[in-house]
């Protein structure tokens, strides 16, 4: 799922960008190239629709293969992250080369991603109970 969001540029401009996620491949089919194929196809579609850049939280080991790099290399900062904090989870890819040239600023996660824990718990009741694990690379 892609969603429109913004970078609040330090010079006062508001820059339209996209964010994306989540993406998931069922465990039996992981590491067969499906995740990358799905990602590359959807990025191509977003590019054809005229969007300039995509930013999100993710693991560089996977997303780096599709041209993402650390957003800090574009001088785009993650909201609510203190200076000096690890921002290696925050990735960026320009769909239009040079789209972020001359822009520094703060990326905002769209409001639609903020959900109440109690609403999530309620929704989860529709599924068989699973143990909550914390795996490497998992942010939440
Ligand atoms: C992340 C995910 C979508 C990747 O899908 P996938 O189909 O397994 O990935 P691909 O086979 O297309 O991988 C392409 C390349 O990315 C890299 N890569 C993929 N998964 C990786 C991992 N777990 N660790 C390190 N590198 C990885 C590899 O270089 C891989 O190429 P290779 O297999 O030839 O080495 C899948 O592992 C998944 O569904 N994970 C759980 C949900 C999740 O964490 N989603 C991402 C955050 S929203």
Could you characterize what this model shows?
- This protein is an alpha+beta fold.
- The protein has one domain: Aminopeptidase, CATH 3.40.630.30.
- The protein contains three helices and seven strands, in the order E-E-H-E-H-E-E-E-E-H.
- A four-stranded mixed beta sheet has the order 2-1-7-5, with no helix packed on it. A three-stranded antiparallel beta sheet has the order 3-6-4, with no helix packed on it.
- Strand 1 and strand 2 form a beta hairpin.
- The longest helix has 15 residues.
- The model has no long low-confidence stretch (mean pLDDT 94).
- Bound molecules: coenzyme A.
- The site of coenzyme A has 16 residues, from helix 1 and helix 2.
In short, what is this structure?
With 140 residues, the chain is an alpha+beta fold. The chain is 19% helix and 24% strand. It has helices at 34-48, 60-63, 117-124, and strands at residues 2-9, 14-20, 53-57, 69-70, 76-78, 90-94, 105-108.
What would you give as the CATH superfamily?
Answer: Gcn5-related N-acetyltransferase (GNAT)
Q: Strand order, main sheet: write it out.
A: 2-1-7-5
| Ions, cofactors and other bound molecules | coenzyme A
Number of helices: 3
Question: How much is the average pLDDT?
Answer: 94
| CATH-defined fold name | Aminopeptidase
The first-level CATH class name:
Alpha Beta
Identify the quaternary structure here: single chain
SSE order, as H and E? Answer: EEHEHEEEEH
Radius of gyration: 16 Å
Q: How many discrete domains? A: 1
The CA-CA distance between the termini, in Å, is: 18 Å
Q: What class would the helix/strand composition place it in?
A: alpha+beta
Largest sheet: 4 strands, mixed
Shape: globular
Q: What percent of residues are in strands?
A: 15-25%
Helix percentage? 10-25%
Q: List how many beta strands DSSP finds.
A: 7
Query: Unreliable runs, pLDDT <50, ≥5 residues?
Result: none
The CATH architecture category equals: 3-Layer(aba) Sandwich
